[in-house]
């Protein structure tokens, strides 16, 4: 496209009323950037300044350096108990999403795995079977979601995991715009086994119990422990199944003894953040 793109609200040199900031307020038509408000299969387009050509497709190259699992901002990687975790660096977990009610109340997290798909826990969807009851926020660091990088999407459909597994896929009503603040995590290869000692992390806006960082994304991590070790009588005594994963501190420490399950963990594999969705046990043994 050789001619200059023109503002979506402009009515010269071409008068139009179909695609404006007023008719499509959620499509990003406030400026003159290329957009795809009608989901044209050929990609983004814009109105032009050429009086002989009302609109044209935009030749936009693929974004460089936005592969899965490689955040532009390196995470802090804070190890320790979840409740005592660290406040994350802003946008260092760009696949983190906030699952909210249609009225905007945050109640669960999830992970972006594709521009139009999110992975979350099935129990997060117990309040309603209607996609319209939920929405997803991305590109945020605070629960208040005041960041200019915020993207909001509704749900087109929800797919629950098989055989009662605590896993669900959410199809967004339209793809997200990938950037350094919004990008997907990687998924593991089939039957991948996470090696013992691998660093894995949980992130979220959960309960802080007075440890600080309320309303700001926090993180904490544990090393993976071999299932056969976790299943020893002194620890979890056979409770960890083959499709589950164990992580934590079983060598002792200052934390009180606890066993916790969580459905999702991000682990570093080959310098990429790979997202695992298991019933995962974290075990911390008291000294």
UniProtKB/TrEMBL annotation:
Residues 1-23 have a biased composition (Polar residues). The keyword Acetylation does not apply. CDD domains: KR (cd00108), Tryp_SPc (cd00190). It comes from Amphilophus citrinellus (Midas cichlid). Residues 1-63 form the Kringle domain. GO terms for biological process: proteolysis. SUPFAM superfamilies: Kringle-like, Trypsin-like serine proteases. Keywords: Disulfide bond, Hydrolase, Kringle, Protease, Serine protease. This is Plasminogen. Residues 82-287 form the Peptidase S1 domain. The keyword Secreted does not apply. Pfam families: Kringle (PF00051), Trypsin (PF00089). PANTHER family: ACROSIN-RELATED (PTHR24252), HYALIN (PTHR24252:SF7). Residues 1-35 are annotated as: Disordered. GO terms for molecular function: serine-type endopeptidase activity.
């Amino acid at each position: 496209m050789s001619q200059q793109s023109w503002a979506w609200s402009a009515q010269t040199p071409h008068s139009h009323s179909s695609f404006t900031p007023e008719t499509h307020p959620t499509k990003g038509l406030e400026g003159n950037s290329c957009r795809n408000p009608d989901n044209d299969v050929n990609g983004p387009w814009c109105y032009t300044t050429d009086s002989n050509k009302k609109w044209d497709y935009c030749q936009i190259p693929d974004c460089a350096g936005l592969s899965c699992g490689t955040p532009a901002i390196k995470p802090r990687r804070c190890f320790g108990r979840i409740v005592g975790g660290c406040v994350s660096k802003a946008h260092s977990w760009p696949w983190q999403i906030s699952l909210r009610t249609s009225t905007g109340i945050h109640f669960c997290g999830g992970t972006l795995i594709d521009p139009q798909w999110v992975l979350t826990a099935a129990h997060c969807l117990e309040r309603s079977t209607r996609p319209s009851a939920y929405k997803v926020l991305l590109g945020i660091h605070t629960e208040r979601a005041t960041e200019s990088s915020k993207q909001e999407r509704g749900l087109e459909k929800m797919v629950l995991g098989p055989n009662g597994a605590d896993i669900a896929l959410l199809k967004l009503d339209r793809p997200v715009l990938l950037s350094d603040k919004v990008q997907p995590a990687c998924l593991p290869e089939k039957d991948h086994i996470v090696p013992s000692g691998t660093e894995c992390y949980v992130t979220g806006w959960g309960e802080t119990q007075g440890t600080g960082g309320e309303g700001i994304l926090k993180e904490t991590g544990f090393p993976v422990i071999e299932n056969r070790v976790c299943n020893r009588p002194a620890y979890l005594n056979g409770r960890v199944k083959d499709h589950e994963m164990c992580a934590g501190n079983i060598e002792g420490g200052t934390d009180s003894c606890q066993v916790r399950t969580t459905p999702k963990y991000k682990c570093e594999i080959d310098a990429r953040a790979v997202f695992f969705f298991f019933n995962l046990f974290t075990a911390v043994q008291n000294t």
